[in-house]
């Protein structure tokens, strides 16, 4: 399940993902990001991953294509999760994509994550 999270800062895309991300759900997220990019030069991503179960193969391919197309337009990414492996993925992503500042936060620090992504 995917739910959009409203942020006061206009260029922040907030999403909550619970379970496995399907192709259709990824399309919803990508469409929302594309709309924001029509309005703002750069966006920031805030993602709460409760019981994240990965992505369908088609969603993975679409994610890669989206990332390649827009990697210069994403400034920051906050990953909120208590899953250790996802926190490690976020640390690796921060090193792999030098133009995108990526940080992982546990759910107990989601207040700080919201502040960080909005600054």
Automatic annotation (TrEMBL):
Transmembrane segments: none annotated. Pfam families: SpoIIAA-like. SUPFAM superfamilies: SpoIIaa-like (SSF52091). This is STAS/SEC14 domain-containing protein. It comes from Halalkalibaculum roseum. The lineage of its organism: Bacteria, Pseudomonadati, Balneolota, Balneolia, Balneolales.
